[in-house]
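User: Hi! I'm working on a homework problem where we have to compare a predicted structure to a textbook description. Could you give me the structure for the chain below?
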Amino acid sequence: MSTSDLAPPSLAATPSELWVACLCAQWCGTCRDYQSLFTQLQAEFAPMKFVWVDIEDHADWVDPIEVENFPTLLMAQGEVPVFFGTLTPHIETLRRLIQSQLQSDTPFKGDPAVWDLVTRLRSQS
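Assistant: Happy to help. Predicted structure tokens:
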């Protein structure tokens, strides 16, 4: 599957739907390898929303956040971020993170710019 198969991302979702955005770059070998794993989980966790965001193709959506390590995941419950950070590129790690977020009601305490990123990504169609 190519990057274009998942982009441009559309995060239009029901207000409470959990969605996962992977922030990567096409030039990154780890990202290219990880994309097929990410897509596998998309099928496993349907109807959750999964999107692949190339930080260079969509830099205007990601700025001012600096993504320096890959893969970086952003998870949100509707409009509310629930996770933002770098993850080891293993399918089991992402699966466990998703499962834990589905069972969690812990509020996000991270950078306010992440809230803005959620809004920007969700507004793209």
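For your comparison, note the following. The domain at 23-104 is CATH 3.40.30.10 (Glutaredoxin). Confidence is low (pLDDT under 50) at residues 1-15. Good luck with the assignment!
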